[in-house]
Amino acid sequence: MDETQAVSALSALAHTQRLRVFRALVAAGPAGLTPSVLAEQLEVARNTLSFHLKELARAGLVTIEQQGRNLIYRAEYGHMNDLLGYLTEHCCQGGVCQASDDSHACIAC
């Protein structure tokens, strides 16, 4: 992942509603969700949801698959993991990171 891709992904996630949508798709797993299910779960209007899904797709964070008359949206785990890797690439100045016991997050060495 390069800097431009990271900024695009972070920009897409820097909106409360898009972050909620992305987290719902991550929680849904590989099965994904239809826009109608997402709209119901998140209590958001479908036209608003459509705008946010397009932004997440443009940033490469979600994929769209047509199944008959339905669209299935899925989190793009590879891109998500690439973003996390980009953000932590130089953690601890390139040395071995230690994870804290409670959060599995990198702690300062």
TrEMBL record:
Pfam families: HTH_20. CDD domains: HTH_ARSR. Keywords: DNA-binding, Transcription, Transcription regulation. GO terms for molecular function: DNA binding; DNA-binding transcription factor activity. The keyword Plastid does not apply. It comes from the Bacteria. Residues 1-95 form the HTH arsR-type domain. NCBIfam families: HTH_metalloreg. This is Transcriptional regulator, ArsR family.
